[in-house]
């Protein structure tokens, strides 16, 4: 099996395209249901709270807190080996949903549950796509 040297780049589909296009522009987009008013992430065709189908895209302000995390010492593929140790986290954004990302620009040993963070965007070499991540606020 060939080693994967480049980090993976998302392949947007019909439902996720607005999210990934927003990331290129520096916007963290998510869906809010027009029937029940609740936020959801990741993008789906139906509201997970009320099964409504009228979902509107909104832009998150970018603030949130670490809900849980793990320090990765052994990269799953060679493309991430240079980053280890790095932090994989579940982050609760202020808009009311959770997403998984890396915590950048900090010592992994300094990350704590409840730590305030803000969304940032990581470039991927060879692609215009940017990856939503977080950094300490
Ligand atoms: Zn709903």
Overall 3D form? globular
Secondary structure: helix percent: under 10%
Can you write the helix and strand succession as a string?
HEEEEEEEE
SS-based structural class?
A: mainly beta
Q: Give me the number of helical elements.
A: 1
Low-confidence stretches: none
Profile the largest sheet.
Answer: 5 strands, antiparallel
Strand order of the largest sheet: 6-5-4-7-8
Radius of gyration: 16 Å
Q: How many beta-strand runs? A: 8
Number of separate domains: 1
Straight-line N-to-C gap: 40 Å
Q: What ligand species are in this complex?
A: zinc ion
Q: Roughly what fraction of the amino acids lie in strands?
A: 35-45%
Q: What integer is the average pLDDT? A: 95
Descriptive report:
The chain is mainly beta and 137 residues long. The protein has one domain. The protein contains one helix and eight strands; from the N terminus they run H-E-E-E-E-E-E-E-E. The chain has one helix at 17-24, and strands spanning 29-33, 39-40, 55-59, 63-72, 86-93, 97-103, 116-123, 130-136. It has a five-stranded antiparallel sheet. A three-stranded antiparallel sheet has the order 2-1-3. A hairpin with a 3-residue loop joins strand 5 and strand 6. The protein is globular. The structure holds zinc ion (ZN). Zinc ion is lined by residues 33, 35-36, 38, 47, 49-50, 52.
């Amino acid at each position: 099996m060939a080693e994967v040297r480049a980090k993976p780049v998302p392949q947007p589909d019909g439902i996720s395209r607005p999210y990934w296009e927003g990331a290129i522009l520096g916007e963290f987009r998510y869906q809010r249901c027009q029937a029940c008013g609740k936020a959801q992430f990741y993008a789906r065709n139906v509201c997970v709270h009320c099964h409504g189908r009228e979902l509107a895209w909104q832009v998150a302000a970018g603030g949130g807190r670490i809900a849980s995390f793990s320090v990765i010492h052994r990269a799953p593929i060679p493309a991430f080996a240079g980053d280890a140790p790095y932090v994989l986290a579940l982050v609760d954004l202020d808009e009311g949903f959770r997403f998984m990302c890396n915590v950048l620009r900090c010592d992994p040993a300094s990350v704590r549950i409840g730590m305030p963070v803000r969304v940032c965007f990581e470039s991927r070499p060879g692609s215009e796509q940017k990856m939503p991540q977080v950094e300490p606020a």
